[in-house]
Design a protein that fits this description.
- The complex is a heterodimer.
- Chain A is mainly alpha-helical.
- Chain A has a domain of about 190 residues.
- Chain A contains 22 helices and two strands.
- In chain A, strand 1 and strand 2 form a beta hairpin.
- Chain A is globular and about 110 Å long.
- Chain B has one domain: Helix Hairpins (Orthogonal Bundle).
- Classes of the chains: A mainly alpha, B mainly alpha.
- The interface between A and B is small, with 7 and 8 residues.
Amino acid sequence: MIKKYWSGIAASLVVFCLFLVSISVFLRVYQTGPFEIYLFNWFSVGDFSVSWGLLFDTLSALMFMMVTGVGFLIHIYSIGYMHDDPNRGRFFWYLNLFIFFMLTLVLSNNFLSMFVGWEGVGLCSYLLIGFWSSNKDYLIAAKKAFVMNRIGDLGFILGLLVMILTFGSVQFGIVFSQAGLLPIGHISVVLIAILLFVGATGKSAQLPLFTWLPDAMAGPTPVSALIHAATMVTAGIYMIARSHAIYALAPDVLTVVLWVGVATAVVGAIIALRQSDIKKVLAYSTVSQLGFMVAALGAGGTHAALFHMVTHAFFKALLFLAAGSVIHGMGGEQNMYKMGGLRKLQPITFAVFLVGALALSGCPPFSGFFSKDAILLAIYQVSPWAFGVLIGVSVLTAIYVARLVFLVFFGPLRSDVHVHESPLIMTIPLVFLAVLAATAGIYHPEFEWVMVIITVSALAMIWWVTYSRYAVQVKDDRSDGFMSLDVVYSAVIVRPILVIARGLSTVMDQIVLDTAAKELGQTVVQSGESLRRMQSGSIGFYLWMITASVAVILIGLSIWPF
Amino acid sequence: MIPTYSYLVLGCILFSIGTLGVLIRRNVVIVLMCIELMLNAVNLILVSVCEPVFVFFIMMVAAVEVSVGLALIARVYRKFGTTDISTFGQLKG
């Protein structure tokens, strides 16, 4: 019994210990303010040196607690979810590696070691998406996630280079204090802000690089919850929030950030409306919610964005894990049109899913209401247009969430599987997360009663309308290829590159390079052929050569300046 | 007392004569003699600037080398009936 679970238990214990550490760190930061720990000098080139150190302030301590807390619950859940997988040892190995890199990312005190963590979580994401490596589609999805992230990472690297050229350092303290001396709209700062944002669009799945996230759902569901909903995809949010000192100096970039976020929120929510795969709905919903956070960052509402990041981590992890429980109970089925009526068969899962769904739709008094309220408020102060669009997106959010709940848990069961409730080891973390998702909002209880009344009545109307459409009689409106950017990318980017590559392979490789290689070889053979004649066997000639060479060397040495 | 400079000049002249002989003469015996001349020119320079002990070793090794060289020439003369240097080219397998 223990032998079967030891890898999961060991991995969970490690994360639990980290969680305890994170609580003590958070309390210390809360009481005595931020502090740094110097670890070691990484490398020095000329007068540029990078040291490895940990920075604990409110932001990183918050991330530390969120990553380890949610991570611990997901580890526990995975023990149950992966109990019959032969490679579960490897699975927990990767999960722990992910936690390590994620903590490197959020606790670093400079941009370069943060980048190490940034790449590391990308690697773990790749490994875990392709975890079931016997399925070729999953491997392709893993590769896609990796390549898409790489495009963003290029922006990050270039941003780092500009930063080093401008400030001569990657240390947070030095960079931010020196950036403060530059005038607003300084070209280097604007460049750094744009390039770092390109990095964030890759990692946090914003337009135009978000297409990897829905495909990343190929990984096991706990991975989707941990990496592709709660932690890794928020790395971009964290990075922009961390460098707000730079963004504050580039107001034009902030406007771009705001509208990219808004556009992502719109596109994600519209696509989520028409999916048939339960995990895909949640994935596009994650894209949309990340768009909310990025938009909040663009409006200067850093606190609102981080608040939503935390509540989103709770309720989206909860939704993914509950969806995993549904998939587990359905024997691996992910198509919502084959589910239905699960509220009686999986009562605990239904209850926690409902909490998560209400939190996601922003229903008071659940956490999502408060955080979304904070974001909308922050954006209203900057751009009423963006505010209006995001109100529309919130309505769409409520619609696709309601559709999801009714299709899965209401109506009759539309397949002949024997559905069972998941074991306690999976449902207990779900309950914990449900409590968190429901109550996380009370740490920031600022709201208007008008908003409560409007939200509740709007939600009630939406749920009433969708109930008749999806629970009473099922309206089949799936459209999985709906608004697929992949087709556009394939036509605009992949095809032309392939054509150019083929042309280059003919001209460069077959004509230029092959001829060059052939000519080079023949030159060597011919010069060898002519030099061979010097080895004639005539001793007199050899002697002449020796004498002449020695004479040349001696004369050369005597007239050489030293 | 003859100055050291004179020894050096004489040594260089003898060495050049020896080198020239090695390069232009066809008779192997003469070539061997010229090699000996070069060797002893160097010896002369050595003995004029440092301890003579080292020079005795060189003379001893030179004597051994000459005996081997002469033996080779004698064998080649018996085989081909000439001591022209181009004959030695035919010795290769």
